[in-house]
Write a structure and sequence with these properties.
single chain; about 600 residues; alpha/beta; Rossmann fold; Heat Shock Protein 90; 5-stranded mixed sheet; 19 strands; about 45% helix; about 15% strand; elongated; disordered N terminus
Length: about 600
């Protein structure tokens, strides 16, 4: 409620300004003056303004009878709240205010603006009136045409049939009498606009068009906005000139023009002074005259008008930049890039010559070391096989000893001996698989046959193989994990080999540990919904911190009789199937090796 009350109070204290237009809010040039004046009032005012616009459409004809209801409308509109200021735009609006001031605005201050000084009835001004007039020098405007186009023989003056247009047709005629021996003039007040378009399209050489106004043509058609001028520009075979800046920007060539902003700024300044308490009749402002000549570069180019013919100090707008001006920095960058590229190509050619000579020498030396390289690779592969076969061969040896004791017993334990023989057969098969699968893994370019299987079952089989060795070493081997299938896609034997490598290394780490403290735990856990983590932890002394990043390097080992290949092979296998493996020390004691694998998504 307080905000509403404040808003109502602000509206009540606002200065009420009425802008009265001569023809309508869309008739050039007054439409441009109206918009600019409104903007300047808002910018310069120190009060909140309530601005309303009204249009005197009766100015399109000489009949003043329709003004009667318009006067009645304005009287009723402002009966309760009289405006603080009237701003009349154009001569017809000024004349209307002066004719009906006693009925409408007897005591209301008025600023007459955008009106040529010849159209102001200075003798009828009251003490509440201030004038911001303009002065149009038509002779200077026509002489500008002859200056930039010296060969001009005919000037067509575009003017309509409304009273104000007829007034200016006579004024222009009087102003250019001095040029009668240099150029002939054609007037369009007897043409419909369609006839004007046909006429402009067929003008003879050395012609020009001067746009005064086209409000009402000879056919009685009213033309608002900029449509008429734009249509004329589209078909005309002669350049178009005018006197007011509101027409500048596309269709006219240019020249000395009345600047809209000059008038609107002065109008707003006078209005602010009046609303601030100054008496309107005491504010005297000299008439606004032509500003510095300005021209449209595009029209100069279209009509081949040399800039050397323009008046001194002229401003040329809408100039299109040359390719060099527009793309100077990109072109310079391209030039620098080409220079650098040329230098680089030259350097590369020299480098290629030196490299070719070096390659020939390198090839000769390469032939010498190829034999040694093959021998080293064969030795490493043989060592890998020997290392990996230790687990199944050891299991076979242990199970053979057990089988012999079972058969030598009295009586022989045939059933248990059969179970041991099954374990021996499985270990033998595992050794055979190691030779086949590990060889394919280490051989560059070989294809690995992938299988879908349950990682939990594969781990259980691997632990079954290594359990005799664990029993022999007094190691407690436990398996914990997720109570659900863990489907993966890989080579089953390869992943079992990873488990065997990690468990065997863990048992080796427990050799110096008391028998009753030797424990190894193999655990599985889900990582999110797309990965599984397998960890092998022991109760040993752990790994020195500075070696944690090196334990997976080939031939790196901390054992007296180790080959340094086991963990390297384990890393190769895990990374082959898209996983990751690492080592860390537990908080209490011992080390833990972990690896992750992507898990199949079961639909």
């Amino acid at each position: 409620m307080m905000l509403l009350a404040w808003g109502g109070a602000a509206a009540a204290n606002a200065k009420r300004v009425v802008i009265l237009h001569s023809f309508g809010q869309d008739f050039k040039p007054w439409s441009e003056y109206g918009r600019s004046i409104r903007s300047e009032l808002q910018r310069q005012s120190r009060w909140q303004l309530d601005i309303t616009d009204h249009s005197l459409v009766t100015a399109r004809s000489s009949n003043e009878d329709p003004e009667v209801p318009f006067v009645a409308y304005l009287t009723a509109l402002f009966a309760r709240q009289r405006p603080d200021l009237i701003v009349s735009v154009g001569a017809p609006a000024a004349a209307f205010v002066q004719r009906h001031r006693p009925q409408l605005f007897a005591d209301t201050p008025t600023v007459f603006t955008a009106v040529e000084e010849r159209r102001v009835r200075f003798t009828a001004l009251s003490e509440n009136d201030a004038v911001v007039a303009v002065r149009i020098d038509y002779l200077a405007a026509i002489e500008n045409i002859l200056r930039v186009l010296p060969s001009t023989k005919n000037v067509t003056v575009v003017v309509g049939t409304s009273p104000i247009e007829q007034f200016w047709m006579k004024e222009i005629g009087n102003a250019v009498k001095a040029l009668a021996d240099r150029v002939s003039f054609t007037w369009t007040n007897n043409m419909s606009f369609d006839d004007l378009l046909k006429y402009a399209a067929a003008l003879p050489p050395h012609s020009a068009i001067f746009w005064e106004l086209m409000i009402v043509d000879a056919a009685g058609v009213v033309h608002e906005g900029n449509t008429a001028l734009a249509r004329l520009h589209a078909v005309s075979n002669a350049p178009i000139f005018s006197y007011d800046e509101s027409f500048f920007g596309r269709e006219i060539v240019g020249g000395p023009l009345l600047a809209v902003l000059d008038s609107s700024r002065q109008t707003a300044a006078v209005a602010i002074r009046i609303m601030g308490g100054e008496k309107a009749s005491e504010i005297k402002i000299p008439s606004v005259t032509f500003s510095t000549p300005k021209f449209d570069w595009r029209e100069l180019q279209r009509w081949r008008i040399s800039e050397a013919r323009l008046p001194p100090g002229s401003i040329v707008q809408f100039r299109e930049l040359s390719a060099w001006q527009r793309y100077r920095w990109p072109l310079m960058a391209i030039f620098v890039a080409l220079s650098l590229q040329t230098a680089m190509i030259t350097w590369l050619l020299l480098e290629r010559h030196r490299r070719r000579n070096a390659e020939l020498e390198s090839h000769r030396r390469l032939l010498q070391v190829m034999h040694l390289s093959r021998t080293a690779e064969a030795g490493a592969l043989s060592a890998s096989f020997a290392h990996e076969l230790n687990q199944p061969l050891g299991a076979i040896m242990l199970n053979t000893d057990v089988a012999e004791r079972l058969l030598e017993a009295n009586p022989p334990e045939i059933d248990r001996a059969k179970e041991v023989l099954v374990d021996i057969r499985q270990a033998d098969q595992h050794a055979s698989d190691i030779i086949q699968h590990l060889g394919s893994l280490l051989k560059r370019g070989s294809q690995i046959e992938l299988q879908e299987f349950d990682l939990t079952e594969a781990i259980a089989d691997a632990l079954h193989i290594v359990s005799p060795e664990a029993t022999k070493r007094d190691v407690i081997l436990r398996a914990n994990g997720a109570q659900r299938p863990l489907p993966v896609r890989a080579d089953r034997i390869h992943l079992q080999q990873v488990i065997l490598i990690l468990v065997t290394n863990a048992m080796d780490a427990l050799d110096d540990t008391a028998p009753d403290a030797r424990r190894i735990t193999v655990q599985t856990a889900l990582v999110g919904e797309s990965s599984v983590e397998v960890s092998v932890s022991d109760s040993g002394t752990g790994i020195p911190e500075h070696m944690l990043c090196e334990v997976f390097d080939t031939f790196f080992t901390t054992k007296k009789h180790g080959t340094g290949l086991g963990l390297s092979i384990a890393r190769t296998i895990v990374e082959t199937y898209g996983g990751k493996i690492w080592a860390e020390n537990k908080a209490g004691c011992g080390a833990v090796f972990r690896f992750t694998l992507p898990m199949l998504q079961v639909l």
